[in-house]
Request: fold
Amino acid sequence: MEGDIYNVALQFRLLRQAGYNISCGMFNEFKDEKGNFKKALMSDVRGMLGLYEAAHLKVRGEDILDEALAFTTTHLTYMIEHLDYLLADLVAHALNWPLQKSLERIEAR
Reply:
């Protein structure tokens, strides 16, 4: 799977939610030579939200998804102050209620 972070994260999330044991290694293409997520991702709010949501589908031992969750949480929290109202509201809602957590609540009912 190649492409922008949003599409890769969306494909990953949808396959994981459907029960496929897909590798999280695809996110390595979005890391720099030092092993950190590329700074360019920080300007892509949609991509950051996609990666944030995908990272919630991690299983034990998937360090890259732990790193992705820390990276996106930190930067999305910072971004809220610099976004227009509607986008800031969307980001704030995602940070408080990730899709995976919302789905778990609905399934529990």
In short: The two ends are 35 Å apart (CA to CA).
